[in-house]
Specification:
Length: 730
């Protein structure tokens, strides 16, 4: 008996030695083992191994909503912090030196070299980021109360302190209480789900074998914007000027997009002039929408049909352009009859608080921008708020038809062919607007590159673009600002609504011979936008020198500019050797956990919907990208059946108009045939080793010399209990 006990003790001790005490193991706050979900949680961005079921996910969402956070940056940080309870390593995150915590241990320094955590997410000092974004923001039922942390904190000046500055003396005190660093023996929370690195070497990320889609809606839309409240809702708009608020189903739930076409959030069709090439091209919601209810629409109007369409013509003597010499357009319209408008609206007054509003009045609050367009082509029109600076970015095409004959894109006195950056929070007086020669109610950010240049329009952030069509900021690296820029030739002309309101017909330019095959009508590009950058049009079309057929506005010499070449692109012949391509559709840097093999890759497409590309940067932060055309298909269990293109295995998307991104960073394709979401690759029988790892093993380490790390604490306790039973029965 004694010999058996000694043997068992020896085996048990050997097992303990196999377990590396310096390695973090997955365990939930309640000491249970993480479990595998069949679908992604609706609110918290966790799939695969997690510590939350759908009920707990809903409870966290309600807790978040009760905080009533007005600032979107702070709200995003708080959402990730609350959702950390779903992390497979939440027990370690919420317990430091055996003391339970109200929030996870926030990383307060760059991940140490001896840390067990992965460096895939380069977040530095997340604790400071939380302080900077939330210090002056009211947070009801704040989890950062000193009493919850068992510390004295600051003597509150108010009876119900809700701001960090009311509760803590300084960032140093705050991060002393809530911050910490990742070491070889512990992990900290950096704003993303915890990921451990392979102890022997970082396993290379497998390239994606295909893009799996599910169809969740039949409607056709040009714009999708995630609701600023961080929930699973999003706004969709069409070219006519209607905006809908929709609820997005959870991934894998089999649900469809919940959107009532008969009840739009707001209807702006009375102001919007829409035809094959014009209409509502963009919408944006103020970063503090939950507090102020402000949202914005970018559209074209017809001054012959609406008295509010009264801007200054962009073709004028300041830019060496005479409207009388342009002539009428293809529709018979006069120069500057159609005008680009950015207008402000409000959701206030329709609900107790803006974030809960399900409708808004179509009454314009403020005219931000109005400018007459020389023609009805190449106008762009997307608007975005910068994630770091809160300024409004306005993408404007050269607006002048084939070859930009007036050279607007290179002329810094013109706003055509530019990306503008506007401050819509500090509105000058009418007298000051007139004095500065502004195009509406906005002010110029002091750090705009040409704000002190009297010979340039101060609104300009970047120039030399033809038709920026779908730009986006990388949610993980906001300094990366991507823009697809449509080339000359078979470019995007827009969509035309016909009798069926859910169906659009694309108008293309008529096929024609290319007289300058080597010099023009060749290239579609993706640009990485930087402050003051010149992207070359019309001196260059992508990497190719461009020669216009006519140039009444003069030319810009190659030697006089320092153009920034595209980071990505494709020749028209790459898509269809007979007809070429239509135009590029810029997309997103994929940051969702749904398809781990697509993570960190930029997605973009061609309007013809027969080609989708993914691109990777190597090395990271180098600006050097390589692309590959990626196959795509529709999942067999798609909530709405996808019809195939006759004679092919491709799903019949129709035409791809745009991409979208929700609050979980899942990416969507907006096409003429409906709304499609990128889903797990296995649903289309595509292989992805990272997806397999997340569904089969909670711990990502697979080193043979550390195989015991694939054990969870729960498995360890099971084995320990089994050994104790042996001792008792021997």
């Amino acid at each position: 008996m004694k010999g058996v006990l000694i043997s068992i003790n020896f085996i048990f001790c050997c097992f303990l030695l196999f377990l590396d005490s310096s390695t973090s193991l997955p365990l939930c706050v309640d000491s249970s083992a993480p479990f595998i979900l069949n679908s992604t949680l609706e609110f918290c961005p966790y799939n695969g191994s997690t510590c939350c079921n759908s009920t707990e996910d809903t409870q966290i969402q309600k807790q978040f909503q009760l905080m009533n956070i007005s600032d979107t940056t702070c709200a995003s940080a708080l959402k990730s912090i609350l959702c950390a309870r779903c992390d497979p390593y939440s027990a370690e995150l919420f317990t430091v030196q055996s003391t339970p915590r109200s929030v996870p241990l926030l990383c307060n320094s760059t991940i140490a070299s001896n840390s067990s955590q992965s460096k895939a997410v380069a977040v530095e000092d997340f604790c400071s980021q939380v302080w900077e974004s939330c210090q002056s923001v009211s947070i009801k039922n704040s989890p950062f109360s000193p009493s919850l942390q068992g510390q004295a904190g600051r003597t509150p000046s108010k009876s119900n302190p809700s701001k960090l500055t009311d509760q803590w003396q300084s960032k140093t005190d705050f991060c002393t209480a809530f911050g910490g660093s990742s070491t070889s023996e512990s992990v900290c929370f950096e704003g993303e789900p915890v990921a451990l690195k392979n102890t022997d070497s970082e396993a290379p990320i497998s390239p994606p074998h295909g893009l799996c889609l599910e169809k969740i809606g039949n409607g056709s839309y040009l714009n999708m914007v995630a609701h600023p409240d961080g929930t699973n809702r999003a706004f969709f708009s069409n070219q006519k000027g209607q905006v809908w608020l929709a609820t997005i189903p959870a991934d894998g739930s089999g649900g469809k997009l919940q959107l009532d076409e008969s009840s739009p959030f707001v209807d702006l069709t009375d102001m919007v002039y829409s035809d094959a090439k014009l209409g509502m091209m963009g919408m944006a919601f103020h970063p503090k929408f939950a507090e102020n209810g402000r949202f914005f629409a970018s559209f074209t109007c017809d001054k012959d049909k609406w008295s509010g369409c009264n801007g200054i013509c962009s073709c004028n003597s300041n830019v060496n352009c005479d409207p009388s010499k342009i002539g009428t357009g293809s529709s018979g319209a006069q120069p500057c009859q159609y005008q680009a408008v950015v207008a402000e609206y409000t959701a206030n007054g329709t609900a107790s608080q803006p974030s809960s509003a399900v409708s808004a009045k179509p009454t314009e609050v403020r005219r931000i921008f109005t400018m007459g367009l020389p023609s009805n082509t190449e106008n762009g029109g997307q608007i975005l708020f910068g994630p770091n600076d809160g300024y409004l970015y306005f993408m404007m095409g050269d607006g002048s038809g084939t070859g930009d004959p007036y050279n607007f894109a290179q002329n810094k006195k013109s706003l055509l062919g530019k990306i503008m950056r506007l401050d819509i929070d500090n509105i000058p007086s009418a007298a000051e607007i007139s004095k500065q020669g502004l195009w509406g109610s906005y002010s110029i950010p002091k750090d705009n590159p040409f704000s002190q240049d009297n010979g340039s329009q101060a609104e300009i952030w970047a120039l030399g673009l033809k038709t920026p069509w779908r730009c986006s900021f990388d949610s993980e690296r906001p300094s990366y600002f991507f823009c697809g820029d449509a080339g000359q030739g078979l470019g995007y002309y827009g969509v035309l609504q016909v009798s069926n309101p859910n169906f659009y017909v694309l108008l293309m330019r008529a096929p024609r011979k290319r007289a300058f095959k080597k010099a023009q009508d060749l290239y579609e590009e993706v640009d990485l936008i930087t402050k003051g950058g010149n992207y070359g049009w019309r001196v260059y079309e992508g990497p190719y020198p461009f020669t216009p057929n006519e140039s009444p506005g003069g030319n810009t010499s190659k030697d006089s500019i320092n153009p920034i070449m595209p980071i990505l692109g494709y020749n028209h012949s790459e898509v269809n050797k007979n007809e070429g391509s239509a135009c590029i559709i810029g997309g997103y840097m994929y940051r969702s956990n749904t398809d781990p093999c697509m993570y960190g890759r930029y997605l973009y497409a061609d309007l013809y919907s027969v080609a989708v590309w993914e691109a990777t940067e190597d090395p990271v932060n180098s600006g050097n990208f390589s692309k590959s055309r990626i196959p795509f298909s529709c999942s067999h269990d798609s909530p709405i059946k996808c019809d195939p293109v006759p004679g092919t295995s491709l799903p019949a998307l129709g035409y791809i108009y745009s991409f979208g991104e929700d609050n979980n960073k899942d990416v969507y394709i907006l096409a003429s045939e409906g709304v499609y979401r990128v889903v797990r690759p296995s649903r289309c029988s595509y292989t992805c080793s990272q997806e397999k790892a997340t569904t089969e093993a909670p711990s990502p380490s697979t080193s043979p010399s550390h195989a015991c790390r694939n054990f969870s604490i729960y498995q360890f306790l099971q084995i320990s209990f089994f050994l104790l039973l042996l001792i008792c029965f021997v």
